[in-house]
């Protein structure tokens, strides 16, 4: 099977769904003729026409607002926000509207909407092309939140999201678009063509929302990660020689608590990592859940590694990004605690 | 139900795509000098047609003609030419520096040099611009040191912004240049707030807001217009219509409104369109608007009709979405060439002096670059401190950041 990048996998997922379901429409800034600044929608306008894949005005609130209207009508819009850093104008529409149509109308109206947005750092994008705002979505009742870490999941989760009857936000780690990235920025980049998770099945398949996956089984400590940080965690385990069990959460809401609890009860230790800023980050939720569910099995405090509580700097990118060294230190400390 | 024919979904398309022949026949270009110059206190109602025409001063032969001519002296004009040439040389060098890996990213102004350089000269010291990433001419025309711009671009040890910002996102209060945000349109409405504050404070300073054609689609643009209109804020609302927003042609943001200037009409804001590649016209219109703002006549909206001759940024390749030769077909020409021809006709410039000036300008840019590179580039040499990640977020660093800074080992 020819291997695909995450970009190609996402494009393939959109293609499969546009082919199967005439209700699927795709739009966003530069998404139509050009195919998106990351090329995730390249070729879709040529294949399905301007009515189903088109350029939007630069107005994120309008993109999401119209998509909500379309979803309520009965279409299956899958829109792109060019960078997660630009979703804020759409935040009102997402948090006050998309999330609540079903609830406030007692099911009279629903919102089967997908919003994709590239997230995270690692590309010297500075403070407005590097953000990880997942916690701003997980905090909102009524939204589902997905963060894939590889091409196979990116396609399967995307298809699941499009078929889901409720609004789903997909944060796509842009540093993973072309290859797995473990935080070692000074080493040659690897591509998905050299990674087994680049082996994306053809056609329709689903990676169900709400199911985590153990990427590396281990006995010593559980690492909870998602997106780019999954690869960082694997590298840290490798480099410290600590037998970590690395769980790729894949979906933050709904969360696969069972897999987490089972693992932590087994290992007795847990490290939670994300790229987003620390304070009130999604890690705080994870730590709380572990504490609530596994307290009597814990042999060490649950540790957190996250981005510093500052905007994402440009020049000091690698002093900001929580790479394998920082994660490795947390693993060692947790083992020694 | 009289009409039950199926509805149609309309998506605007540019005239031409790659492979086609560039065609700007839809851009109606009035004769230079043909558009009236109303008094600054003209009723907005009475000058609506200025939103649908194009004010031009330089004609095909390089003469300055019509009621908008004559706002600049010989010295000011030669200085203006030099500013545009400097900006172009600066762009060329920084574009190359990015290609050489000395920085991560760059955005050039190719073809749009007249807009910001001419505009700056219509403002006074103390006035505040709220620019986008494509108005570095405001700094250059105001004498901001090129070395400091480059230090910012290289994120080096002398970067005035301490490595925190993406290249070209300059900031200089002293030079009337508000700190640039990467989030489009957000600052357009902040500029109105600055202008309102000036009026509240019975100050004499005015503000200038800047936005691209594509970004006028953002809600913040419309927020700015309603506040400016309601409070008659002393502001110039600048829309730089360079025809493209990355790969998206201006028709997607403009929709059915005819022109971007026409957006102002519904708000009762005097709205003018000007040839953005005509240094004299840009200056004259900006001066007219500045006078209105300073005389308590309120906001003016100006649409600069120009063309983004280069790529959107160093991350972009326009040949994927527009014909390669489209830039050559652009009917308003090259702003530098047009001013040069005018100065020659005026008898104060020559091809020879131009060549010489070109060399001088390039020398000064190269000298600045050498100096800046001496302080480091993105991946080598002097760097801003890791402490700069944590400092300056709050006036006083809170304990949690102090703890994190410690964890970072600095
Ligand atoms: C809120 C927001 N949405 C999207 C972007 C991504 N983006 C950066 S520049 C750009 C195009 C802007 O075009 P225009 O306003 O015409 O300005 P120009 O680049 O042509 O000067 C886009 C979509 C952004 N920076 N901010
Ligand atoms: Mg533009």
Automatic annotation (TrEMBL), chain A:
Q: Which domain of life is it from?
A: Bacteria
Looking up Pfam families in the UniProt record yields: Transket_pyr, Transketolase_C
Give the EC number(s) under which this enzyme is classified: 1.2.4.4
UniProt domain Transketolase-like pyrimidine-binding: residue ranges: 4-179
Q: Which GO terms describe its biological process?
A: branched-chain amino acid catabolic process; response to nutrient
What's the cofactor? Answer: thiamine diphosphate
Q: Give the PANTHER family listed for this entry.
A: 2-OXOISOVALERATE DEHYDROGENASE SUBUNIT BETA, MITOCHONDRIAL, 2-OXOISOVALERATE DEHYDROGENASE SUBUNIT BETA-RELATED
Where does the sequence pass through the membrane? Answer: none
Q: Which SMART domains match?
A: Transket_pyr
Enzyme class, broadest EC rank: oxidoreductase
The entry's protein name is: 3-methyl-2-oxobutanoate dehydrogenase (2-methylpropanoyl-transferring)
Q: What is the lineage of its organism?
A: Bacteria, Pseudomonadati, Pseudomonadota, Alphaproteobacteria, Hyphomicrobiales
Keywords, alphabetical: Oxidoreductase
Q: Which molecular-function annotation in GO is an example for this chain?
A: branched-chain 2-oxo acid dehydrogenase activity
Q: Does the keyword Oxidoreductase apply?
A: yes
TrEMBL record, chain B:
Q: Which InterPro entries match?
A: Alpha-ketoacid_DH_E1_comp, DH_E1, Oxoisoval_DH_suAlpha_N_dom, THDP-binding
Reaction equation(s) it catalyzes: N(6)-[(R)-lipoyl]-L-lysyl-[protein] + 3-methyl-2-oxobutanoate + H(+) = N(6)-[(R)-S(8)-2-methylpropanoyldihydrolipoyl]-L-lysyl-[protein] + CO2
Q: Which UniProt keywords apply?
A: Oxidoreductase, Thiamine pyrophosphate
Q: Which residues form the 2-oxoisovalerate dehydrogenase E1 alpha subunit N-terminal domain?
A: 6-45
Q: Which segments constitute the Dehydrogenase E1 component domain?
A: 83-378
Lineage top rank: taxon: Bacteria
- Which cofactor names does the annotation list? thiamine diphosphate
Q: Which GO terms describe its molecular function?
A: branched-chain 2-oxo acid dehydrogenase activity
Instruction: Please name the Pfam families in this protein's record.
Output: E1_dh, OxoDH_E1alpha_N
Alphabetical list of Gene3D superfamilies matching this protein: 3.40.50.970
Region listing for Disordered, in residue ranges: 1-22
Q: Biological process GO terms, please?
A: branched-chain amino acid catabolic process
Query: What EC identifiers does the entry list?
Result: 1.2.4.4
**Mind telling me which PANTHER family this protein's record contains?**
2-OXOISOVALERATE DEHYDROGENASE SUBUNIT ALPHA, MITOCHONDRIAL (PTHR43380)
Q: What does this protein do?
A: The branched-chain alpha-keto dehydrogenase complex catalyzes the overall conversion of alpha-keto acids to acyl-CoA and CO(2). It contains multiple copies of three enzymatic components: branched-chain alpha-keto acid decarboxylase (E1), lipoamide acyltransferase (E2) and lipoamide dehydrogenase (E3).
Which protein family is named in the record? Belongs to the BCKDHA family.
Q: Mind telling me what this protein is named?
A: 2-oxoisovalerate dehydrogenase subunit alpha
